[in-house]
Amino acid sequence: MGSLNGGAALRAAALAVALAVAALATGCNGGTVDSHALKRDAEKVASLATEGELLANDMAKGASTKYFARVHAKELSQAASDLADALSKRPTSPGIESDVRKLSRVAAKTSRHLEQLHLHPTSRNVAKSLEQPLTDDADAADKLAK
Amino acid sequence: MKIFQVALGILAAIGGFVDIGDLVFNVSAGATFGYQLLWVVVIGVVGIIVYSEMCGRVAAVSGKAVFDAVRERLGFRTGLMALISAQVVNLMTLTAEIGGLAICLQLLSGLPYRWLILLAGVGLAIVVWVTSFDWIERIFGYGGLCLLVFAVAAVKLHPVWGAVGHGFVPHMETESPLLYAYFAIGLLGAAMTPYEVYFYSSGGVEEQWGPKDLGLNKVNAMIGYGLGGFLSFALMIVGGSLFLDKGIEPEFLGSITLGAEVPLGQIGLLLGLVGILFAVSGAAIDTLFSGAYNLAQFLGWEWGRYRHPSGAPRFTLTWIVLLVLALGAVMTGVDPVQLTEFAVIFSAVALPLTYIPILLVANDRAYMREYVNGRLANTLGLIYLFVIMIVAVTAVPLLILTNVGQN
Q1: CA of B273 vs chain A CAs: smallest distance (Å)
Q2: Which of A2, B69, B184, B195 could form a disulfide with B290 if both were Cys (CB 3.0 to 4.6 A apart)?
């Protein structure tokens, strides 16, 4: 193993770290929203709304716990809110601005619905009443993803 | 008492194989590709069994753990490179595990996340300080068995078993081959993450294995990692059955436990959370010890959990410093799940520096006497070395090309 070159390996590792940092940076919610990013973000919003609907369904059946429902609903709500904020501010490619802003509003609505689950983690009625709105949110986001 | 002796393998499997990285990658892989990547888990499980058995045998016959071999076989400079990469990946993983532990406690208690990070850190320090190695193995190994609830959940979700069976045959039905490759690399990296063998071989030395324990070593590696693989299958099937059709991208630990809650209700949720709690706690302890083992072995310090802390002061100081650094990192607000993905991919890059010296030492008759690798161990070892090289070379490009698995 004496042929292994420690300096070359070190440089390769440093390059790998630099590339990964660059990858992380590109993964952030910055930059212009193009049609591909719009599709990705719409799928994310639909995913959050659908997961919220799944949680609401369990809460309505009494199949979840108070703390899990409260904490997980908040996580989902926060993620939807972050997407809504980013989509309301970021510049867009020509021709898709209205869809991007519309998706921002859907994300904000999804966040508000999830926030209600967070605020009422033990109320089966509230959970039941939010199942359909969250399904509608997911459908609206899905339409924008196509 | 034999059943308790198998605990080392089970701890390594539950706290190593099924850690936050496996939870995230297996469920996400299922949610993205259904059951298509089950075959990759099989490859990863066989790989970790092959190399764990090898390094356990080296530990039993020569009394040397992995980083003793690294230092002796790679020389100081390249060995130092291996040490640095191992410690960076260890610290990233430890940070992710502590963050995951705090999230799990929050999902169980509803208390504020930052307070729970501190509680997790203090709790881990107390457990590591006051609990014997044997009991750490038993508590976290067997506590992690609560994860078996995901196997029940997988059955209750009524997957299409024909499709599950087809998943064990390598195939690719996707328009996103790069994303498929990224998940395959991530699953292999998560299965063969280096700290598992650091911990396993050092644990063998700690337990004073000798040649008479070689049978136990084989059983430990096969049962422990076999069980870990079984849990990985279950997690991927849950992801494929519950999330794929609904278009859900499970981005949180809470999403993963929904996989047990939906089919099994509160009891499924609670068992899932407790299982994850023990699994990530075990993994945090594995990585904590691994970091201290690696440094102590590389620098020739006294080391070992069986010694009183005053008998191995630099080893003890090392794990305390690592714990403080990881706590500081997770307190910055870094997302443990996202950090996990980076930790797994970087561990994939570091794989050759861990596994090459093990293969070399296991073939050295001066160390191993009549216990050197046989033909089967060498054939499998070389095949996996080839796989590991491919994984190491492609991991970072795939991370970039897929935007950390987002596209």
Answers
A1: 10
A2: B195
DSSP assignment letter at B144: G
pLDDT in tens, B201-212: 998 888 888 999
The per-residue pLDDT for range B220-279, each reduced to its tens digit, is 888 888 988 999 999 999 999 999 999 999 989 999 999 999 999 999 999 999 999 999
Substitution target from B71, B77, B87, B238 for chain A, most A beta carbons within 10 A: B77
pTM for the model stands at 0.91
According to the 3-state scheme, what is the secondary structure of B163-180? HHHHCCCCCCCCCCHHHH
More confident residue, B134 or B354: B354
Backbone torsion region of residue B42, taken as left when φ is above 0, otherwise alpha when ψ lies between -120 and 50, otherwise beta = alpha
Does position A3 have pLDDT exceeding 90, yes or no? no
* Structure tokens that stand for B356 in this block: 């090459």
CB-nearest to B269 from A2, A40, A65 is A65
- The answer, yes or no, to whether residue A29 has pLDDT greater than 70, is no
pLDDT value for A26: 47
**Could you tell me which residues come within 8 angstroms of residue B42 by beta carbon, excluding any fewer than 6 positions away?**
B168, B229
- What residues does A33 pair with on adjacent strands? A92
* Mean pLDDT on A86-91: 92
Return left, alpha or beta for B12; rule: phi > 0 is left, psi -120 to 50 is alpha, else beta. alpha
Alpha-carbon Rg for chain A, nearest whole angstrom, is 20
Q: Are B140 and B11 in contact (CB under 8 A)?
A: yes
Which residues 6+ apart lie within 8 Å of B57 measured at CB? B214, B217, B362, B368, B371
Interface test with A, best of B400, B404, B406 (most A CBs within 10 A): B400
Nearest to B247 among A6, A23, A47 (CB): A47
Does position A25 have pLDDT exceeding 50, yes or no? no
Looking at CA atoms only, how far is residue A98 from chain B in angstroms? 23
Contacts of A138 in chain B (CB under 8 A): 247
Is pLDDT at A23 greater than 90 in this prediction? Answer: no
The token pair that represents B32 in the structure block: 């993205």
Tell me whether A6 touches chain B (CB under 8 Å): yes
Q: Are B37 and B29 in contact (CB under 8 A)?
A: yes
On the question of pLDDT at B395 being above 60, the answer is yes
| Cβ contact B247–A75 (<8 Å) | no
- Locate tokens 């039993």: which residue? B60
